[in-house]
């Protein structure tokens, strides 16, 4: 220290700590000259002593003016050293860097100025302190003093110039420093970081693309910044990197895909759009590298398909189609289970479009990897079954297609139909609103006969008789009206002539017994007119209720549709089809005379020609021996006697029908009794509490309530 004091005049040291900038500046110039002379003389020990003096007595002084003088003095000493400054940098730079965190903004300003002058002198030798300088500049970029920010900006530009021309810069050491700061929210720091990323990426010898996964998330984070300028800078940097990815033969798609998947779910629209655009390019370029990430990528795409922004929806759909078209096998790392899990999760999405695409994925996997999907069936089957109650018709139709693919296996088909019946039982509105849609679509996908046979077998054993009756009525209406079931109707018309139709008639009859009107409709469809008459005549008072008459009204109207054209044409030959005429008259007798259905049927029967209908034939209808012909003009017996071994045993069928109807009547009586008991308890409770109306005499018998018969029912 004494050497330094003897080298530097006292006046210089005094002026170096003066409060006036000009005096400090002049002192620094004199100091520069002194150091230059020492450097020429090669006396580096004295130079070291001078630097030590400036550091300890000035830059570390509690006096702000001393610290300012010390900084300008260190810069002057570096200038004086010129080419020999490198060997003293470890003494010079650290105290300057320390001054960047000084409490006095003017000291921080002069620290920037000093380091700027030092950097101009040493240039490339400066790189050894790059990480510390970068850290300091990062903090200064957000300094509260505008002058300090301005000085730091000038220093930053100089450091960038030095780095771009240096061959000693280590990108490996710099990246961890950059990564640590990428999630800082300060806008000035963000601008500073994006600026450095852009500059380093422009240097041919620096491979920033290889380290992109380390700071990609931070760049995406800046896309939602409140500053338009920062968003623009981040987007520009990302666009440049994406272009480099397209032109690069080697890219680490996997690590970046994970980041993009997260960002695709950002609440910020611009971030989502950029992320989905990147994913789109990755799917096109990534190839085998992305196979392990398909499930994650799909999880990002599906929600974007329903995005509120059209641009995002368009890109998401394009990406989804690209992903669907890729052929990958489990042996290549394609995880069928993971894809199914994602699709299953998005079946619960609030957005219809997302649910639809999730189903498309399950369907595609069933096509490409059927056995693998079935191995995971227990994980998704319940969800697929519940999806049948989806509010969207499109979703329900797609779910049915998926179920049809699964139901190629008999067990799965049975489970599907059982679940459907359970759902219809538990949710009457589902049967009312969606029943026809679901049943008709299943018939198209799996075959009408197969579906109806399975439904009939299940309903035959149904314990809830009321539900069974409602379900059979719904199935019967679908059978009579749906174009998808036309082949089934044609098969039933052959019931009296061919084995296939007869087997189907037997299969449906057991469950159709739950509804008298369904049985009558089935008989009319199968041209079993004599049995229809027998069923009609077997009906008792309890069977002919409002529900029955409503169903009868529907049937009468259906008889006027093209589906029953064959039946109306048979009325042209009453002599050949006397039981048909008798069955229709039987239905007419059950209808209230004032009802529209009565008038429709009576009008139709009035058109039946009287020729070729003799008294003998009328007598035969009472004896039950009339022979009729089937639709292919094959003579058949429409009755219950003289049947061959392969014919329909109508006597046994009638017993089956009557047995089922007795069960329904018993159930109805039990329910009525239960309701009456409940009503009596309510009255007794009211009497006990004195709540009966004053005009009511509890000792008098109840008034008889007049009931109107079926003839008074208006339909």
TrEMBL record:
Oxidoreductase in keyword set: no
GO BP: phosphatidylinositol biosynthetic process
Cellular localization per UniProt: Endomembrane system
Entry keyword Ribonucleoprotein: no
Ranges of compositional bias, category Polar residues: 671-704
Highest taxon of the lineage: Eukaryota
Biased composition annotated in UniProt, kind: Basic residues: 705-715
Region (Disordered): 661-715
UniProt HEAT repeat ranges: 92-128
PROSITE patterns: HEAT_REPEAT (PS50077)
Any one annotated GO CC term: endosome membrane
Keywords: Membrane, Repeat
Pfam families: Vac14_Fab1_bd, Vac14_Fig4_bd
Domain Vacuolar protein 14 C-terminal Fig4-binding: 429-608
UniProt record similarity statement: Belongs to the VAC14 family.
Name used for this protein in its record: Vacuolar protein 14 C-terminal Fig4-binding domain-containing protein
Source organism (scientific name): Opuntia streptacantha
């Amino acid at each position: 220290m004494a050497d330094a004091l003897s080298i530097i005049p006292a006046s210089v040291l005094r002026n170096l700590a003066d409060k006036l900038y000009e005096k400090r500046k002049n002192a620094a110039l004199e100091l520069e000259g002194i150091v230059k002379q020492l450097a020429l003389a090669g006396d580096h020990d004295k130079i070291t002593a001078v630097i030590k003096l400036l550091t300890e007595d000035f830059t570390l002084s509690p006096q702000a003016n001393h610290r300012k003088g010390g900084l300008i003095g260190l810069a002057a000493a570096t200038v004086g050293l010129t080419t020999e400054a490198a060997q003293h940098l470890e003494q010079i730079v650290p105290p300057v860097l320390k001054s960047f965190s000084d409490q006095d903004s003017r000291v921080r300003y002069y620290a920037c100025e000093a380091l700027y002058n030092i950097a101009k002198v040493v240039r490339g030798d400066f790189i050894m302190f790059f990480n510390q300088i970068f850290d300091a500049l990062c903090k200064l970029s957000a300094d509260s003093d505008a002058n300090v920010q301005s000085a730091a900006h000038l220093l930053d530009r100089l450091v960038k110039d030095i780095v771009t021309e240096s061959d000693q810069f280590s990108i490996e050491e710099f990246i961890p420093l950059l990564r640590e700061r990428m999630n800082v929210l300060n806008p000035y720091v963000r601008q500073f970081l994006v600026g450095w990323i852009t500059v380093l990426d422009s240097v041919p010898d620096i491979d920033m693309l290889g380290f992109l996964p380390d700071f990609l998330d931070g760049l995406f984070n800046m896309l939602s910044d409140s500053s338009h300028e920062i968003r623009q800078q981040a987007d520009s940097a990302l666009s440049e990197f994406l272009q480099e990815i397209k032109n690069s033969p080697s890219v680490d798609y996997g690590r970046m895909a994970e980041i993009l998947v997260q960002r695709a779910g950002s609440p910020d629209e611009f971030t989502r759009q950029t992320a989905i655009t990147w994913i789109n390019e990755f799917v096109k370029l990534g190839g085998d590298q992305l196979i392990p990430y398909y499930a994650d990528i799909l999880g990002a795409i599906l929600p974007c398909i329903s995005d509120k922004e059209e641009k995002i929806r368009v890109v998401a759909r394009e990406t989804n189609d690209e992903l669907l078209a890729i052929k990958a096998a489990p042996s290549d790392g394609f995880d069928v289970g993971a894809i199914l899990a994602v699709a299953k999760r998005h079946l619960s999405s609030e957005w219809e479009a997302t649910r639809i695409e999730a189903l498309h994925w399950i369907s595609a996997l069933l096509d490409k990897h059927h056995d693998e999907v079935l191995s995971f069936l227990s994980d998704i089957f319940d969800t697929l079954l519940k999806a049948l109650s989806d509010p969207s018709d499109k979703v329900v139709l797609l779910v049915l297609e998926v179920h049809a693919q699964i139901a190629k296996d008999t067990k799965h088909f049975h489970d599907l139909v059982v679940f459907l019946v359970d759902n219809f039982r538990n949710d009457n509105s589902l049967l009312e609103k969606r029943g026809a849609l679901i049943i008709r679509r299943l018939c198209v996908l799996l075959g009408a006969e197969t579906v109806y046979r399975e439904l009939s077998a299940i309903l035959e054993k149904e314990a809830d008789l009321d539900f069974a009756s409602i379900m059979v009525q719904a199935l019967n209406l679908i059978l009579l009206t749906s174009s998808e079931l036309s082949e089934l109707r044609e098969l039933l018309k052959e019931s009296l002539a061919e084995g296939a139709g007869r087997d189907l008639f037997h299969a449906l009859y057991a469950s159709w017994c739950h509804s008298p009107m369904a049985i009558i409709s089935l008989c009319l469809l199968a041209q079993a007119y004599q049995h229809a008459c027998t069923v009609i005549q077997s009906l008792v008072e309890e069977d002919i209720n409002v529900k029955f008459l409503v169903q009868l009204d529907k049937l009468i109207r259906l008889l006027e549709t093209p589906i029953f054209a064959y039946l109306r044409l048979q009325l042209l030959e009453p002599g050949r089809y006397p039981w048909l005429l008798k069955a229709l008259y039987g239905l007419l007798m059950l209808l209230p005379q004032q009802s529209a259905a009565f008038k429709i049927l009576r009008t139709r029967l009035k058109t039946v020609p009287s020729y070729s209908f003799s008294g003998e034939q009328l007598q035969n209808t009472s004896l039950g021996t009339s022979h009729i012909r089937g639709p292919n003009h094959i003579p058949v017996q429409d009755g219950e006697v003289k049947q061959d071994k392969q014919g329909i045993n109508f006597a046994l069928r009638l017993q089956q029908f009557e047995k089922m109807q007795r069960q329904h009547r018993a159930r109805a009586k039990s329910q009525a009794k239960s309701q009456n008991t409940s009503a009596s308890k309510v009255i007794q409770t009211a009497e006990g509490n004195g709540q009966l109306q004053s005009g009511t005499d509890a000792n008098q018998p109840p008034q008889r309530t007049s009931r109107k018969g079926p003839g008074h029912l208006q339909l």
